[in-house]
Amino acid sequence: MTTTMKIGELSEQVGCPIETIRYYEHEGLLPAAARSPSNYRLYGDTHVERLQFIRHCRSLDMTLDEIRSLLQFRDLPGENCEQINSLLDRHIGHVAGRIAELKALQLQLKQLRTQCHSVQAAKDCGILQGLAAMEDDVPANLGSHGRGCH
Questions:
Q1: For residue 43, what are the β-bridge partners?
Q2: CA atoms of 132 and 134, how far apart (whole Å)
Q3: Which end of the chain is less crowded, N or C, counting CB atoms within 10 A of the terminal residue's CB?
């Protein structure tokens, strides 16, 4: 039996904001929903399963392009999975790089923390002085994540 629900019910069942569901539809990750006679979007079990799959991928920090590729393979279950393995290997490499960036960030923060040993006036705070001195000296290995512009 196929369940039919409106977008709010889908949002509640999967734990995904309505705006995100609409965005995934717009991006082609979710198939367009059927429409009721009163023009409400109607979703079914396949939407629930696909949205859960997308959310699991997002929880692993996968990009929408990576998810799109995985969904294409999911939709063609007879295909060879070699490209899926390659995609995951690349993603593992990305995660390893991000871990290295975060370790460098942690070290930098610990070094910065050593610059202030006691409670004093903010104008004398070694941390604030250290931050001011390093503004143009962000390590290159921190990439876009460490540059303060998101």
A1: 5
A2: 6
A3: N
Alpha carbon dihedral 140, 142, 143, 145, in 10-degree steps, equals -150
Q: What pLDDT sits at residue 2?
A: 67
Residue 96: the pLDDT is: 97
Distance, in Å, from the CA atom of 96 to the CA atom of 113, rounded to the nearest integer, reads: 26
30 burial level (CB within 10 Å; 0-12, 13-18, 19+):
buried
Provide the β-strand partners of residue 41: 35
Q: Which residues of the chain have pLDDT under 70?
A: 1-2, 135-150
Closest by CA to 48, choosing from 16, 71, 19, is 16
Q: What is the number of other CB atoms lying within 10 angstroms of the CB of residue 10?
A: 22
Residue with tokens 């692993």: 60
Which residue reads 């904001």 in tokens? 17
